[in-house]
Amino acid sequence: MTKHNSQNEDPGGIPENAAGGLLHIDLDALASNWRTLRDNAGGAETAAVVKANAYGIGIEKAVPALAQAGCRTFFVAHLSEAIRARAVAPDATIYVLNGLFAGTGPTCAEHNLRPVLGSFEEIEEWAGFCRTESLKRPAAIHVDTGMNRLGLTVPQGLTLKDRAELKDFEPALLMSHFVSAEESDNPLNRQQIEAFQAVRSSLPGLPASLPNSSGIFLGDKPPYDLVRPGYALYGGNPTPDRDNPLKPVIGLEARIVQLRWVEADHTVGYNGRWLALEKRRIATLSVGYADGYPRSASARGKSGDNLLAGMTLVAGHPCPFAGNVSMDLITIDVTAVPENQIRRGDTVTLIGGDLTIDEVGRRSGTIGYEILTNLGSRYARVYRGGQG
């Protein structure tokens, strides 16, 4: 059985011995990754994107660790996340990426938060709020250069210099977002850079931000004034065509709750989608899709098939999933593990070693981002490092 030091267990969280899964989070690796990204940012300020509960590892743990490493600017998606970040980073600059929700100007002001304004309506509302307060509060302006989600269009961005509302608040940052920066040879990258540069040139002196995690590693990108890494901070590979330059931050283990032999021609799991062609030993893990492990990692076929499905490491042995991932349980084929190396109560690796978050995403038919941000609340969270 794997033994763990619980000194850094999440205070108030689930005790290790009561949890079906253990989520290990290395805050020192998180800080190291931020420094690596900073060193590749061409002198630009390196912010940190901590939306989605800091990609699943916890805002209240991640933000102080990053601030201790030197990060001074943070981005979140929702106002509620920004308030949480402010509580643990009283002096940081915090931007709210999803914009200014109607009527939330007073809340932004109360917590000293900066909305990212992506429409003329938002700009008008923020400017009006600042006029009412007789105080020019800062905000970012988002120009869409190809994503077609949020942001002013490029033609709208080129008219910003003539908008009277910009005199009523402090435009603190001009930003856009890459569509395919992880594809280094995608021509859209150059098109976006050129479009963004045109808007930026019309607003001289306004700090600018374009690169995300993968954008930092584009060979021909200008770093501008600020870069906004997210996924790479947490160990995701920003350069999928090359080796990952970042350290893994999370590891996930699941507890074996039962071991059994399944006879030949018997099936395992819901709907009988996995068939044992010969006698197989099956371990049942106390983790399922209710814990954020995707059901799409289910193994549907026969024992011995080379399935693109979930995989575990058990006492150093790769062991594939067997059958459907269910709400609270996963079944795996551990026949290859010597019987004296496995027993009830042991933990097995779901994420760690060769099972990186990118590999787990690939085997689940999704991306590592989804794996990270779905990490559930039923794990015992064991933190390492990040202490003052």
TrEMBL record:
Enzyme class, broadest EC rank: isomerase
GO cellular component, one term: cytosol
GO biological process terms on file: D-alanine biosynthetic process
Pathway connected to this protein: Amino-acid biosynthesis; D-alanine biosynthesis; D-alanine from L-alanine: step 1/1
EC number per UniProt: 5.1.1.1
Residues binding substrate, per UniProt: R149, M327
Cofactor(s) essential for the protein: pyridoxal 5'-phosphate
Alanine racemase C-terminal domain segment(s): 249-384
Catalytic residue list: K51 (proton acceptor), Y270 (proton acceptor)
InterPro entries hit by this protein: Ala_racemase, Ala_racemase/Decarboxylase_C, Ala_racemase_C, Ala_racemase_N, Ala_racemase_pyridoxalP-BS, PLP-binding_barrel
Molecular function GO labels: alanine racemase activity; pyridoxal phosphate binding
Keywords: Isomerase, Pyridoxal phosphate
N6-(pyridoxal phosphate)lysine: modified positions: K51
Known catalytic reactions: L-alanine = D-alanine
Entry annotated with the keyword Nucleotide-binding: no
NCBIfam families: alr
Role summary: Catalyzes the interconversion of L-alanine and D-alanine. May also act on other amino acids.
Protein name in UniProt: Alanine racemase
Lineage, opening ranks: Bacteria, Pseudomonadati, Pseudomonadota, Alphaproteobacteria, Hyphomicrobiales
